[in-house]
Amino acid sequence: MTVFLSRLRLPLRTLLRTCWCGLLRHLQRFVLALAATTLLFGASAHANSGYTQTRYPIVLVHGLFGFDSFLGVDYFYGIPSALSQDGARVFVAQVSAANSTEVRGEQLLKQVKNIMAITGASKVNLIGHSHGGPTIRYVAGVAPQLVASVTSIGGVNKGSRVADILRGVAPAGGLSEAVVNNAAKAFVALINLGSGGTSLPQTPTAALSSLSTAGSLDFNRRFPQALPTGCGSGAELVNGVRYYSWTGTLPLTNVLDISDGALSIMSLVFGEANDGLVSACSSRLGKHLGDYRQNHLDEVNQVVGLRDWFSVDPVTLYRQQANRLKLLGL
Ligand code: CA
Predict the structure, then answer these.
(1) d(CA 319, CA 330)
(2) Ion ligand 1: residue ranges with CB closer than 5 A
(3) Is 0.70 surpassed by the pTM of this model?
């Protein structure tokens, strides 16, 4: 009996050891697979390389077509997420779509102070598109201590010929001004409808005045910081604030984009390099970073990223700028 049991114990031990080892092997494989899966998921969910990890928050400021989102599409299409996934803290400001630079600037200043209160940051990096260019210059002009950098993209820094023409056919107090004003208000109302509405005041004629050459010259007399006298670069550092700009110079970039036709038609009034709404020279501010194969809406990756596929991705330019600011300690 004893012999039988001892004989039996041996294969039983072997069997148990085999089962135990098999179980261990399975468990080991499971743990390894789980670890690999976690690493993979971790890599995709938290792919923070730190490339865009600026010291100060980035605040994006829209232009005349001032929707935070339109029918679910962001104004800065795909840009906030591209910046934040590699470390930047990004805020999208919401100011009046159509109003004077000063009114928009005061609205932005309040939001900048709120962002500083929320984040505890002592400054912000401002990035503005179109009328957002002069708007961020206003804040840097009145409160340079709150601003680390100003980046103007397709900025209307020396006026727009399109605004001149719209003002030219709309003399102050005349019937045509009322017609133009109502048409512009209807346009803004449509945009506001798409973005879920806003209580911010809209004054299209004030916006057009600010964006005209005469209005811009008046603004520039009061806020001359980093503006070049010609068509090159201006000063990069003024009152402790870094200034940069880039723009597009190709009005027609993608025939599938519904906005390209209008931009192409408007581009004909310039007689010089432009993006369909702003001339290349008007866009210059601080250190000029480049002219690209983009139109005015490609500059914010619209409409839904339809662009010239042979040119640099607009989103890449924002990421490179964030990295530039990061390397400067901003
Ligand atoms: Ca486009």
Answers:
(1) 14
(2) 257, 298, 306-307
(3) yes
- The Å distance, Cα 307 to ligand 1 centre, comes to 4
Tokens found for residue 111: 């939001």
Residue with tokens 């601003």: 147
Separation CA 70–CA 201 (nearest Å): 18
Which residues form the catalytic set? 130, 275, 296
How many angstroms separate the CA atoms of 237 and 226, rounded? 7
CA distances from 319 to 37, 38, 128 (A): 28, 27, 15
Please say whether the beta carbons of 104 and 131 come within 8 A. yes
Helices (H), the chain: 2-45, 79-84, 101-119, 132-142, 161-168, 175-194, 204-211, 213-222, 260-267, 280-283, 314-327
CA–centroid distance, residue 119 to ligand 1 (Å): 34
Q: What percent of the chain has pLDDT over 90?
A: 58
pLDDT digits (tens, 9 = 90+) for 179-189: 555 545 544 55
Give me ligand 1 centre to Cα 294, in Å.
7
Give me ligand 1 centre to Cα 17, in Å: 67
- Report which residue type is found at 78: G
